[in-house]
Amino acid sequence: MHPDFPKANALSPQLIGAAIEVHRHKGPGLLESIYEKCLMHELSLRKIQAVNQLVVPIEYKGLTFDEPLRLDVFAEGCVIVENKVVEAILPVHRAQLLSYMRLLNAPIGLLFNFNAPLLKDGGIERLILPGADLS
After folding, report:
1. Environment class of 50 (CB within 10 Å of its CB; exposed 0-12, middle 13-18, buried 19+)
2. Is the Cβ–Cβ distance between 119 and 25 less than 8 Å?
3. How far is CA 35 from the centre of its chain?
4. Angle between helices 32-45 and 5-26 (to 10 degrees)
5. For every one of its 135 residues, what pLDDT tens digit does the chain have, with 9 covering 90 and above?
6. What kind and span of H or E run contains 125?
7. Is 58 helix (H, G, I), strand (E, B) or coil?
8. Closest listed residue to residue 55, CA positions, set 94, 6, 119, 104
């Protein structure tokens, strides 16, 4: 089992609750950046440590690329949150999140689609890093 999986697993419902609260107040269809700022504020109010737009350098056999990736939210050093405002979550969105999870060795990732009429009805996907939940 991934050493951070229990912490990430316990944190996931809190992050989902924070996203639902933001969506309840702002509704669907705004820019991703608006939801990100609101979610960061909601996490702060809930005393959940998080950073947004974290720069993640890419390394390959000793080479570090000059073009970093930017994650939406990295909570408590163990859960990555990606915010979307799209018609539907696509495989490319899941692949992007899984790539970020591998790069940061984060056991859990959450995809929030703030375009959904109700976030809890199809606007939330939870991904687990392969093998992170195995004992």
Report:
1. buried
2. no
3. 12
4. 120
5. 999 999 999 999 999 999 999 999 999 989 999 999 999 999 999 999 999 988 888 889 999 887 777 889 999 999 999 999 999 999 999 999 999 999 999 999 999 999 999 998 889 999 999 999 987
6. strand 124-128
7. coil
8. 104
